[in-house]
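Pilot study result, target chain (101 residues):
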Amino acid sequence: PGDIDDEETIPRTIVHIRMQKRSARKFLTLIEGMPKDIDLKKVLKYFKKAYSCSGTIVNNEETDEKVIQLTGDNRREVAKFLKEEYIVPEDCIRGPWALIK
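Predicted structure:
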């Protein structure tokens, strides 16, 4: 065990940020694949307060993974927050690339 690169030992999870249409003019922002060590309740509380929206944490039955749902189109803000707070590296965020830059 000589040289161990710290970047390789950190598990890199891919976070998907999607928008789902709910009705004619209503949307949901879905955030999937958050790292396991992140407290999703605290992140959700921040999103709800910062973006003046409602939200919840649901369980994706296909992947048995927790998903954050926010009302409205908050993809740009969520991607910016995850990147600026160093929760997820920029290259691990998947979504509409034009919105993330």
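One observation from the pilot: Strands lie at 15-21, 27-32, 55-60, 65-71, 93-94. A full batch analysis is planned for the follow-on phase.
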